Amino acid sequence: MGPTETLAQFVVDTHLRDIPSKAVEISKLVILDVLGVTLAAARQPVARILNEYLRECGAAPKAGVIGSELRTDTALAAWANGSLAFVLDFDDNIHGSTHIVPAALAIGEGNNATGATLLEAYILGRDICFRLDAALDAGRRKNQGGPTSRGWFAGGTTGSLAAAAAAGKVLGLNAQQMATAFGIAASGAGGVRRNFGTMAKALQTGNAARNGVTAAVLAQKGFSADQTILEAPMGFASALCLEGECDWDALTKDLGKFFYMEQLPPIKRFPTCTPAHRPIEGFLALRQQHGFTAEDIESVESDFHLRSLSRTDPQEAIAGPNSMPFILAIALLDGKVTLEQFTDEKIHDPRVRAAMTKVRHRPNERRPGQMEPPDRITVKLKNGAVHTIEVAERATLKTTTEIYAKYMSCATMTLSRTRAEQLGQLIDQLENVPDIAVLMTCMNGDELTID
Amino acid sequence: MGPTETLAQFVVDTHLRDIPSKAVEISKLVILDVLGVTLAAARQPVARILNEYLRECGAAPKAGVIGSELRTDTALAAWANGSLAFVLDFDDNIHGSTHIVPAALAIGEGNNATGATLLEAYILGRDICFRLDAALDAGRRKNQGGPTSRGWFAGGTTGSLAAAAAAGKVLGLNAQQMATAFGIAASGAGGVRRNFGTMAKALQTGNAARNGVTAAVLAQKGFSADQTILEAPMGFASALCLEGECDWDALTKDLGKFFYMEQLPPIKRFPTCTPAHRPIEGFLALRQQHGFTAEDIESVESDFHLRSLSRTDPQEAIAGPNSMPFILAIALLDGKVTLEQFTDEKIHDPRVRAAMTKVRHRPNERRPGQMEPPDRITVKLKNGAVHTIEVAERATLKTTTEIYAKYMSCATMTLSRTRAEQLGQLIDQLENVPDIAVLMTCMNGDELTID
Known about the structure:
Two copies of one chain form a homodimer. In chain A, 51% of the residues lie in helices and 6% in strands. Chain A is built from 20 helices and six strands. In chain A, the strands form two sheets. A four-stranded mixed β-sheet of chain A has the order 4-3-5-6, covered by helices on one side. In chain A, strand 1 and strand 2 form a beta hairpin.
């Protein structure tokens, strides 16, 4: 049995009862986190454009668009919600929920799935996601090779197959249909990192969610595709990876014995692309230690991590999370980096623009054999003092309390506190929810006003 | 001005009056050819599944699905028609019309575009398509490197951007919006050659057509994307190509001075993937020269061209055009290779299966410095005779009469002869058609019965 078939069979044969309760508990937290992030994004300009587009499509109202009154076809709902989930770059920093949750949610809502089915589909989809990335992007860890290092965005590429796994699980596909769904999903898998810092970034996870839903539905209807798409010549790995770049063992190692969701993925503390997190922490720590203010500062030096954070001159709010000058400028002015600061007003605020000129790029020196050197932040003050800090670890949210607090602050940007709490309770009890349509009742409809 | 912006500006600034009349005349023939092929495909199983799917989506009826009574949203119509256009692998063998025509047609129908606009959009989209492939797949011609040689399918990758160019031209985007549309289209560009010989193959051009339409519409609505997506680090070429693999000059060389549609692309004579054409010709020539029949034959040897024709054991009709054993078996039994032979019955016919066992793979030997060696076909007869032929050129359809005859034989598989002739006349006069909705009147509706 080849890898594609092995993974397909695994997804089909595995049920919630086979999954460790730790994975279930962690998954509920991560789903809560991404729903909060999606709800917050529903107030962004990208949501207005997508909703206008969906209204013009005029599809049958089968599944809700999060944070609006819109209902549309399942594939389009997955597309919209999958896009919204990644608008803010505030989902867990391994990325996966942004396409897997919307795919499973849309097709689940359209098919009266239970909360247990949603959880099962999410955990399996996410397991496939981790495995595909571990295998196909192995070169990145080894020597900064691999598709992601060349520009492919895993959220759109492997993400399409992971979303298909989740959607296919909700639909109850058999192994042959599931392998076919992987093949169909590969026909639309794509997306590049250069779109980071634009609306199209988010569209890439939206496309993955839609690809997954469409693939699962078409496979169920008897549509055909190559059932060995991962390993076959001219297939998915062949196209994405160079000779010898794949780690095929990683694809199936401890399959069903260990579930990736047994480990909490890093839950973001800051609403920015991950490479910005350590510089933010470093700068805020220096600021606290030395008590300087914006006026005191001559310059701030940091690695801009230009591969992911290429928007050095952001012109719209959505570019903010991918712009180190902007991020450090708001940290410098406001002493914090929070969702509320990522606005078009702030991006064009002359004070922010002036602060951005103080932020300078100094690439991290990579030492031999070192995968990811610590970030080094240097603040030079007008009085001649120079403060430097190195940050090697990223502080992420780890406790239920922290994650719930982030969720509430995000969700209440769109929902009333009551609705947000209701949704939180439903996710906390997700395995007992008889029909997940009730989740969408909290997130979609005409009563989405803040208390 | 970078390459992305240069191409965007070119598409925006160029009008039908700037395009040589030869390109217009040739384009009308090629559009006619692909519409015929699409109409023939509307009677294939893949059309039934897609139509069922579209009915469930229930989108607003803005554009027609070719060969059915269905009307749906413009992006979905582009998706369906773009898929149907490539089901049969009978479009011109450079591939491009399969996604560009459906994208321009759907968005044109939804916006009451003229025939002149459709032609303009097609010629420009196709020019972009040729240029992207010349630049990004240059490695293939040099040394069998490049994205296509690794498994990417240009119809889905560069095809998405070409479809965006055509759709964006119909919508009248400005240069900034057009460059954005390229960025948005890149967010969904994908597809792999391994899906050839399955329904998902066709979905890949459908996805490209949909990507193009969605990208153009979203760009018009103010959606943002990277506007340097071709050349930027972590962008489209970076992801698809290896270091030094691109031929950047090819992208813009003689831009606006020479239009690729001034040259007739190879119009297929046989409804199979291109690498099968020379073996078919060689076998039919030997058969004619020596007058042998199926019973006389001990074996037929040919290169199977397994990179494109990997379906050695086809199980559904759609695999036929990508299966050299099947193709040569029907040539052997029937003395011809025509659309009517590619059926599920024929695929499972015991006589065909028996003939397939006589067809053997012998790879072509590639000589140093030779891009594409001639195909060599060897027929061994039971009486001991051995006949061999080498075919270096592919015979394609070149005259208007030949192309029109192919069109009529394809189109009348779905349309009445009268309707097919009507459509033919409209395409012949395309630059004078005031509203292209009239084209769809011929191809969509409840009167699609054969005389």
